[in-house]
Specification:
By secondary structure, the chain is α/β, with parallel strands linked by helices. It has 10 helices and 10 strands. The strands form 2 sheets. Strands 7-6-5-8-9-10 form a 6-stranded parallel sheet, sandwiched between helices. The chain has a 4-stranded parallel sheet with strand order 1-2-3-4. The chain starts with 7 loop residues before the first helix and ends with a helix. Helix 1 crosses helix 2 and helix 4 (135-150) crosses helix 8 (248-260). It has helices at 8-31, 45-53, 69-74, 135-150, 183-189, 199-207, 224-234, 248-260, 262-274, 280-292; strands at residues 36-38, 58-62, 80-83, 97-99, 124-128, 154-158, 174-177, 192-195, 212-214, 238-240.
Length: 294
């Protein structure tokens, strides 16, 4: 990745890049490929350059509002950049982008059962920290659990595998787990989701029309999660707080206020639904087919 300042290391990175481009060129030539599809990231750069040097079309999909460095630097070489958020187009060359949303797994689009022993008519709070979990968020949540449970809420908490205190709280209405496979069922059942603001999680919140409290990961590249969260905030689909400003008292109170107001939750659900592109997979597939059929 091109993260450090210019120096001797830069030449090592550049020589590695050139070697990678040549390797990918050979792979593309041997495989008789018709084009290249990529979702960006620094690892995509050799593929984009190699494909274009062979005259092959390149379709790039950018799921975040603020495109990554490779997307910004190499988007002009691509035939088209499919964006997950409409707002992402303003950071890219005009005429290059098509808004398609971000595809989700098929189970998110159809009703799923929640395989946990939770009564039907109780409020459910889902806490997810993204694929890696979020220890700082977990710590805040655990302090709020007694007050939330006291009001009748049930909590499903995906802690990630890096939290040494993941199972330090025990209560029949609290389900901590390092990882949970049935995210579609969880989001569909939840009344409120507390989450980071990665593009994948936000897409899943949108297609399940779920109100949320978003806490963007503060160390994400270019602070891109804050840009994602801002889109949800602007549609009144979520409340957004920086990690540094969020206290135990604030999180506890905000959640209780939302759970008390079905009207607020309904408005947020409507806002989330406005951001959903349920046929994103089909749109993206059609786009790829269009450019590879030439």
């Amino acid at each position: 990745g091109f993260q450090q300042k210019l120096g001797l290391g830069t030449f090592k990175i550049l020589s590695g890049l050139i070697g990678s481009i040549l390797q990918v060129r050979q792979i593309l030539k041997r495989g008789q490929f018709h084009g290249l599809f990529t979702t960006g990231g620094y690892i995509a750069a050799p593929g984009i350059i190699a494909a274009r040097s062979l005259g092959l079309p390149v379709i790039l999909h950018e799921s975040n509002v603020l495109p990554g460095k490779v997307t910004r630097w190499f988007s002009r070489l691509c035939n088209v950049v499919a964006v997950g958020f409409e707002e992402g187009a303003k950071y890219l060359p005009s005429g290059k982008t098509v808004y398609v949303g971000t595809p989700v797994r098929e189970e998110f689009l159809y009703p799923q059962l929640l395989d946990l022993p939770i009564p039907e008519n109780v409020p459910v709070i889902a806490v997810v920290g993204g694929s890696q979990g979020a220890v700082a968020v977990n710590q805040l949540v655990r302090k709020c659990i007694p007050a939330w449970i006291e009001t009748g809420a049930w909590i499903i908490h995906q802690t990630g595998e890096n939290d040494p205190d993941a199972f330090s709280v025990e209560h029949p209405q609290y389900f901590p787990m390092t990882f949970y496979n049935n995210m579609a069922g969880l989001f569909q059942r939840a009344n409120l989701v507390i989450s980071r603001a990665g593009a994948g999680s936000l897409t899943e919140l949108a297609v399940t029309h779920k109100p949320s409290i978003l806490i963007p990961y503060p160390y994400a590249a270019d602070n891109h999660q804050a840009y994602n969260a801002e889109v949800f905030s602007s549609q009144n689909a979520a409340l957004v707080f920086t990690q540094s400003e969020l206290t135990e008292e604030k999180l506890q109170t905000e959640v209780l206020e939302l759970l008390k107001s079905s009207e607020k939750l309904e408005k947020m659900a409507v806002g989330a639904e406005k951001l959903a592109v349920k046929d994103s997979g089909k749109k993206l597939a059609s786009l790829v087919h269009k450019f590879l059929s030439h």
